[in-house]
Amino acid sequence: METAAGYPRRKRRRDLLEQRRFLGPALLSPAIIFIVLLVGAPLGLSIYLSLTDATAGSLTGDFIGLDNFTSQWSDPNFRTAFRNTIVFTLLANAIIVVGASILAHFLIRPFRGKWFLRFLILLPWAAPVALSTIGFLWIFDSLFSVVNWVLKSLSLVDTFNPPQWLGDPTLALAAITTVHAWRLLPFATVIMIAGLASIPTEVNDAARVDGATGLKKLWYVTLPLQLPIATIAVLFGIVFTATDMAVVYILTRGGPFNSTQTLPMWAFQTGIGSGSLGAGAAIALYLLPVLALVTVLMLVFARRVEVT
């Protein structure tokens, strides 16, 4: 009797899941729960901490409103970190877009050893960030820098006063920008190659028939078709670069004299190093509206380009 009664119930459940209004939410719910637990909960906790005077050892504190945000805005170190984050993010992504475009156009051509060269270009993306950055720590070392050794051999720098790549504020910021561009270049190159591969051959044939070759074809045919996917590459590059802390932590730790601070690094040093959890959370949250605005603008731009 129980078996006969349970069969219709199981059949009703199967029929219910086959309906679109139930099947869609049922398939999406694991991803939504995952995002809420791993992204929403920490974000909510950060917003709460930024409005309190919480310190290390406790996840609670007295409510102080926006004091953490206003006090950090008047801090010179925070302003330096904010400016550096914008500058090196824009510079790194400009280098990435130009470099990835050149590499992608080169790598889609048939030549011997193409797959091996693609593998070598992808290696920086596959290597752990800490491992590759430690390699650059040696490359930019004040005493054993291989860059300085080459420059000295070519008599391009003073033998007794070589560049201090991580000791000079400007050179240190340039070194951090270089490492970020080197790390993200493979990812952008792969996206660009996918964009070029998605262009139908009929379009290239029609452009060739119309006499569009070389730079003319690149400007009027390839770039407009490649622009939406290039926008996605820039969007990911901005997010990855602006939120990364590992490269600055390993190379300079924000020095010399806080000249290479970035917002993630300054938030870590304030919130974890100094134990001011509320102030650290406020610094980290300064990035949120900026990145959200950039994301919305880029997606709207990509949608318009795709529609037109």
Automatic annotation (TrEMBL):
Regions crossing the membrane: 21-49, 86-108, 120-151, 171-197, 218-251, 271-302
GO cellular component, one term: plasma membrane
Localization in the cell: Cell membrane
Topology class, membrane: Multi-pass membrane protein
GO biological process, one term: transmembrane transport
PROSITE patterns: ABC_TM1 (PS50928)
Keyword vocabulary terms for this entry: Cell membrane, Membrane, Sugar transport, Transmembrane, Transmembrane helix, Transport
Family: Belongs to the binding-protein-dependent transport system permease family.
Name of this chain's protein: ABC-type sugar transport system permease component
